[in-house]
Amino acid sequence: MEKIVKEKIMQHLVAHKLIADCQHGFVNKKTCVTNLLEAMDFLTYNVSRKLPVDVHFLDFAKAFDKVPHRRLLQKLESYGIKGNVLNWIKVFLSNRSQRVILGNTSSTWVKVTSGVPQGSVLDPTLFIIFINDLPEHINSENLCKMYADDTKILSVVKTTEDKARLQSDIDSVVTWTRTWLMELNIKKCKVMHFSKYNVSPHIYLMNEYDAKGSVTRTVIESSTSEEDLGVQISNDLKYERQAQIAAAKANKVLGTLKNTFISRDTKIWKKLYTTYIRPHLEFAVTAWIPHLEKDINVIERVQHRVTKVPHEIKRFDYKTRCIKLGLTSLLNRRLRGDLIQKYKFENSIDSISWHIDPPNIPPSYGHRKRFHHEMDNNCLVRYNSFNNRVAHPWNALPNVVVIATSVDRFKAKIDQL
Prior knowledge:
Layout: H1 2-15, H2 32-48, E1 53-58, H3 63-66, H4 69-78, H5 83-93, E2 97-98, E3 101-102, E4 105-106, E5 110-111, H6 123-130, E6 143-147, E7 150-156, H7 160-179, E8 190-194, E9 205-209, E10 215-219, E11 221-222, E12 225-228, E13 231-234, H8 240-260, H9 266-282, H10 285-288, H11 293-306, H12 318-325, H13 330-346, H14 380-383, H15 386-395, H16 399-402, H17 407-415
Parallel strand pairs: 8-11
Antiparallel strand pairs: 1-7, 1-8, 2-5, 3-4, 6-7, 9-10, 12-13
């Protein structure tokens, strides 16, 4: 029943274009990758033009648990969700209670009057509806990106007015949380200052309220590196730390699997690797792809180690081991992943809003979906950003590949090249 209600609600929201464009969480055609790509596109575009950029990472305290039921129902009704569906949701949220059990001791039951039921099919949808109007309080000159409650505000801060406008946005967000009985974890809210031209970083403040309602202006802590949707972002726009973290996680899993499985059979280890290890190396990699040789090698060495585990192929060189395991280098897989992602964008399988849309190339030759890349060497990360790095391999694809009628057919065709 929850699944049916969720589908009907989402159909209504999408049909009437009610979901905020900046929301990427639990929304059709959007993912954490599209969120990260849009944010990095804005960031690298401006940094490459020698503009200072500040990014605020906001942390909601127990976000899903804080949603007040009455206010949630009020918002649902304001978005046109009424009648039997609204009544069903009222029943779904009501008559819930909880208690804490520790060993043989338990607390008394307490009625639950806030929070969306976590673990249910419907709870993410209810939450994004509740938080949906938050971006309306962000100045249009600034950029807001959300994945459920994970919220960041990006702004070019070239002038005093720019910084004041960003401060105003922070104040507006705090006001919104007070109005809707939500709470920011101020100690976990951070600001990052990007660009070497950000010579005098601004100090931002946030209102902090005590139990009596008294307010204190608290300084938002500055950070040089933050985890954003599982990806480590550094203010120098390098992905060395992210590559190290990804490799460390993968190596840890590799060690666990080697201790768990006695078998060193080739087929078994290919399955173990592709199921449990490689995903750590490729999570959201389209958004943070390593472009420095040392970072590329850090990632590739994990696969190098894995291919040495099966005894029957251990004596061969790395390239031969990969062939016998039916693997390609991770570098080639990332290129393949870029092309697949570009195909999804071109065919509206995934949706993305670029800060600057890449211009198309007139169809004098080649396929009709070719586009220009930027000739920009001022920022290495911008030079290697998604549209710039995928332009050449995408433009070189034969037309018969580009016009593939499904993702699976596109994959099959590029694998044959």
